[in-house]
Specification:
Mean pLDDT of chain A: 97
CATH class of the largest domain in chain A: Alpha Beta
Strand order of the largest sheet of chain A: 8-9-7-10-13-12-11
Number of helices of chain A: 11
CATH topology of the largest domain in chain A: Dihydrodipicolinate Reductase, domain 2
Oligomer: homotetramer
CATH superfamily of the largest domain in chain A: Dihydrodipicolinate Reductase, domain 2
Order of helices and strands of chain A: EHEHHEHEHEHEHEHEHEEHEEEH
Distance between the termini of chain A: 34 Å
Helix content of chain A: 25-40%
Strand content of chain A: 15-25%
Low-confidence stretches of chain A: none
């Protein structure tokens, strides 16, 4: 049994991680920390866990966490970087579900996250935890930077096109729509039911923190600089991301459906739908899959890729568990084989 | 492995049963029938099942079904009764998720369901599938009538009070609220998103088919006739039932919290919350639990019981699987141990 | 033109009041105050008001407010009572949309609202602003206590029965369901979309502040003490209250439909639906009507009354405007004749 | 008073038209037809109209309709074209809210709508009812083709750029999101609450009927052929369209904010938001406004235009009323000055 610790865990990413860990057959949650909720049984905060998880929040303690094989950080940005070096030195492996180690360039990180990075020397060593790209590196990694939700949906949608150099990469467009849980469990006016329900809007059009993360991944896939316009939207639902991706084809003769099916044929969690499909976010609700469809409307030179995930699963906690499975040599879908909840 | 057949399965009860069966370790789905969808792979209709269930709908065929150990009927009312006698004769055990065998009195059944019963002689032999009452009978049953969604939530909430004779049983009130999936997957104007969303209403106040079913169960528990006012409401959400139950206490000194905890202490799927709690429907979303809280506002003589279930799980498919587990001597929570999806 | 001031106005009650005032032909909004938002144009906070209302929030100032004919308080409980005496002395009439003047007994008020009342001598002088009871008094009032949302729906539903002494008044039950806007615009975890959507729960079952307000009103109508169990529920929608009321009939022969139609026949905003109806909250969305239906299920001795309002209109801002119309001798439906938004 | 007839009126476009007509001071609804609902009082179908509209559906009758000054068709596609010639001959003016007269080329119409056009000779004579382009023509028109919902939002967003030739017009992208009411009130599985709620998906990516309509309008504005990729999405809410538009700038120095403010400065129903804004669909819920914001993320050469409308108002019934006002020389905002319902 892998001894697991969770730092944070009072947010949506945290409770989702707990839901998945409760069903994971080869790990054991030994500690979960929350400074503000220390002493509170986890199931008192999240009643869905009653009868499944008999553990209370405790004050974060490096010594206690050092007894774990793996520690997940489900904390706000800027927390993991203050504790990770000590844990790594203690031989603990770490998966950070926040953004502290997602960008390789410290100046870019500091610009977008508006703070100084506490341990910039770890940025290059951290492995970006998108198994569909970095599986081998993840298996060996001490520190995994779990990807953001938008970046997961967008990168999986664009990758085959960029890896093959099939599109004009200077003007990629990612029009992404997210459920409200992507904004977290913190009480803010904008995410109240009465503000976000029966409403639809774009936000952060001038610039969103996931833009540099997506761009970094796409550039690695393309092998050169790319141009990306990324527009996120808030959608009146709890879970789900739908990325609608646009690019201009350089080669009109390539069979894109076959390309995607080949690229993802062995991937346990990427499902390329039959030609002509329209994936629904609910088809992955609570599940770790990314479902993708490829279109060329009116057989023109614009390719449209539709990519859906559950932002809390493949976009956060599920992908973290997938990374754990890879890191510890388990079946990659261990604890992740549940069927999406529909309706 | 238990060989399982499903008749019907294109509705919400059906897809939920398929979701649960896909994760059930000791059964094997060998046939699923739908006259209208024969030939269609199940996962083409319900994309959440892609990769989990590789079977297509077939035309209902008694011979094929007779090779099963157990057949579930997830059909509209009035279908199961036309096939059940043949299956029982063939030695197949049956769980009907519809209402064909829920009432013991044929005249009452015919009055409320507006049709003639095709095999009234089976009404007395069918076992009402509420394990919290009939566990021993279910274990031996050839034919189980799976309870309705409202009846499950309301009976589990009232049972301890009536079994102990603690309330004035002539004026029980059950004010129940259901998500829209209780109305099924049939296209009707009233259940369109634009009609049922951002809206709340009572319906069927003059009389709902679940009234006689609830009354029958409560009378058996009480040992005498009872009076019940049952008002169902349509709630703008997909899943969940919240029953708010009112009764006048005859004995003001009894510790109701202790009573409920004792009554349900050994029940794997009934969770009595701590005193003062307010159960939320989302705490059981996708899970087979019923969570209950008991209140006596201002220490008066009115008891208020709050009881929540997921109408598609404990109120339908989950309870059916629980009954299967009981019938075949499996662990009662086999395939039913998943954590509710929250948020 | 009536010169109107609004104190508060950054919450849902406030923006609804502004929406209605913008369309009111015989009043003029001359000042709107908010300490926290002073200087901000109202339409910058509420973009629906762009082009309709060209005024900015200002710091509350008694002198400025004293130049108004009428001041509305759309503030949290406990604010109006600190300013009302000065305004009344200055000859300004006041409608308080909060609870400061709703209860006649100061000790009861202080018990339920958990603070000392700043001007208890005004409690008896304030007129409870339910025009269906107090129209004549409201017309003359200097200070009107605008009723709460639940109290409006529940009282209008019960009044005819209690005024005529037709029910056993010791065990009245009000099972009420509210949209989330009733909780206000303050950022709290419980009213986040991800907490309140796809969820249903009761709250405050041990005791809600609207209980004493409802009880006070019903006792005045009945002419004697009554017993009431009031259970509010949070419903996953923005607007609307549905009250389901239960009582035991003392006189089974009375024509209740005729009684209600007679009682409310001249009321511009109470609509008694035809026998057998089920009112929907959306039928009053954005409108000032209360729609009511009366049932006697199975012709038993339990009467069920269904009463719906928009909690922000008839339950708050619309009723306040109705009171203003009554106070200033205008047509009672001036500015309130809009059709509910459906769908 | 303008004598108005409505053909159809049992759908969402119809009830919205009735809501607006009920408040319109200079028109009188004299007949409303529905073959299926003949005899039914309108307010029995739509309870929000109780007390506002005392008229019943009648069987469509050309003679009766010929007594009107204006007839609105709120019918499915293909109905208006069978009656319009007779009405026009009788001197009645017509506004068709369906698509029968929106395309100028009959072959294109027949291809996209899959039926033969009953009166192709009227296609060229019909005026496309987008007042922001065709105000003068509409004023004189006998037959107005009221634009589709997506075409209104997309055209108003793109027009200034195309009229000025500022963007590469061969690869325009319109990523549009619509509330479910755009699909109408017909009972279909895909628009059930349990299918469309808590879900997001694209649809009709290979080709949607609004594509040729948008393309025709944009080409007229540009003065030459354009290339457009149009991807509509179904959003889990009742009302609202959000169009996110992408184009590559040819001229990076032009002040786009000033351009839009100048283009729409005199338009009563197009509101250009301050630079940096993100319009919300709820800011126009129930109102006839289109609100627009213009962005150039990271000062690159991609322009992003955000355009929101209420699909049932500016996207259908409200625009129809606006057209009526223009046709009959009334104030253009007569009956359309209500404030959007927020929250």
């Amino acid at each position: 049994m892998i001894k697991v610790g969770v730092v944070g865990g009072t947010g949506y990413t945290g409770v989702e991680l707990l839901r998945l860990l409760a069903a994971h057959p080869e790990s054991e949650l030994t500690v979960i920390t929350s400074r503000s909720e220390a002493g509170l049984p986890v199931a008192d905060m999240f009643p869905n866990l009653r009868g499944h998880l008999d553990i209370a929040f405790s004050v974060p303690d490096i010594e206690q966490l050092s007894a774990c094989d793996l520690v997940f950080f489900a904390t706000p940005n800027g927390t993991a970087m203050t504790m990770v070096p000590q844990l790594l030195e203690a031989g603990v492996r770490v998966i950070d579900l926040a953004a502290d180690f997602r960008l390789q360039q410290v100046d870019e990180w500091q610009q977008w996250y508006g703070m100084e990075h506490a341990c910039p020397e770890y940025l290059q060593q951290a492995v970006y935890g998108l198994p569909e790209i970095n599986r081998a590196l993840i298996a060996q990694a001490a520190l995994v930077a779990n990807p953001g939700c938008y970046p997961t949906a967008v990168q999986l949608g664009f990758l085959p096109l960029l890896e093959e150099g099939l599109v004009e990469s200077g003007h990629l467009i990612a029009d992404a729509k997210s459920g409200v849980s992507g904004a977290g469990r913190k009480a803010t006016t904008g995410t109240l039911l009465c503000e976000a329900s029966e409403n639809f809007k774009a936000y952060a059009v001038p610039g969103h923190r996931h833009l540099p993360e997506i761009r970094q991944g796409l550039q690695l896939a393309a092998g050169h600089a790319i141009g990306l316009t990324f527009v996120p939207h808030l959608t009146p639902m709890i879970r789900g991301i739908h990325a609608t991706l646009y690019a201009q084809l350089l080669d009109a003769d390539r069979d894109l459906q076959a390309l995607y099916e080949a690229r993802y044929g062995d991937e346990p969690f990427v499902d390329v739908l039959p030609a002509g499909s329209h994936p629904e976010t609910r088809s992955v609700r609570g599940a770790n899959h990314c479902r993708i469809a490829i279109h060329r409307p009116q057989q023109g030179d614009t390719v449209v890729v539709l990519s859906v995930i559950d932002n809390l699963v493949k976009g956060a906690a599920g992908q973290a568990l997938q990374n754990m499975n890879v890191m510890f040599g388990l079946d990659e879908d261990s604890g992740l084989s549940n069927v999406a909840l529909l309706p």
